[in-house]
Amino acid sequence: MSGMGAPTDKPASVLWLDTTGPTPGAVALEADGRLDKQTIMHSLAAAFEFPDYFGWNWDAARDLLMDQLEQQQGPVLWQFSYAADVEINRADLAEWASLMNAVCEYAESVGVPLRVVVQQRLQPSSLSRDAKLAYVDDTLRFHFRGNFTRTIEEHGFGEEEINGWVSLAWLYQQCREQGLIPQGREDAGFALIEGLHCAASVDIALGLGLDELDLSEIGVGYDEGSESFPGLVDYAFSVLEQHGTALWRLVS
To answer: Are residues 140 and 113 in the same domain?
Structure first.
């Protein structure tokens, strides 16, 4: 099968990853600067060599992928990728994700260890490591008291952790610019944003997508919940829906 990667012995699952590097062997879901049902169907048909009678719909794609699994005798890895900066039809991408989850469940039921890896190809941030540290130190000064760089060095955090904090700082900055976090309540507002970003990252890593996120749970247990910041969680969530959780790539 063309475009497929090497086998793996992992259980049936869908793993969503962000990467700034190349994705050799992965099936690209986008074409001509867009990602939608049409590009996905063409990518699947080519990579899995669908027959001429393929119906070019979700049900037909699911059935043919399940047929492929029935011919497998060992662990299987399917890799897909798409560029984050193309025009993405989120509804179509979510439909495809639901399809792949169903295929993974079927694989498990017939005893075929299937792993599906979906890589979102990000444009690298133009910021250097030192510039990222300075950005977080400045934007979240109320939180780190100017000690973010020292904290990172003491804990030996790598690029992934730094990018996570840059993402949080950028999201916080957008919310402040919208007037959703009053002066003097920065820490409480940031706690809500951090909780939302963390929950979204976990759901995406589990292949659930943002549709499964319960916004009413954000801030539960805090001294000041989301009701103390009208519109904050909804706005921050809309930013995550539009850009994803890897917001560090938007900082220039």
So the answer is: no
The two tokens of residue 64 are 């043919």
Q: What's the domain range around 47?
A: 13-121
d(CA 181, CA 158): 30
Query: In a 3-state reduction of DSSP, which class is residue 78?
Result: strand
**Please, where are the H alpha helices in 17-77?**
37-47, 58-70
Residue 6 covered by a domain: no
Q: How far apart are CA 52 and CA 43, in angstroms?
A: 15
In a domain, 184, yes or no: yes
Residue 131 near residue 28 (C-beta atoms within 8 A): no
Domain end point (choices 121, 139, 157): 121
User: DSSP string spanning 163-201?
Assistant: HHHHHHHHHHHHHHHTT-S-TT-HHHHHHHHHHHHHHHH
Indicate the pTM of the whole model.
0.56
pLDDT tens over the chain, length 252 residues: 433 433 333 334 688 877 766 677 899 999 999 999 999 999 999 999 999 999 999 999 999 999 999 888 778 999 999 988 789 998 999 999 999 999 999 999 999 989 898 988 876 667 888 999 999 999 999 999 888 988 888 888 888 889 899 999 999 999 999 999 998 999 999 999 998 998 888 887 776 777 778 887 787 666 555 577 889 989 999 888 877 888 887 786
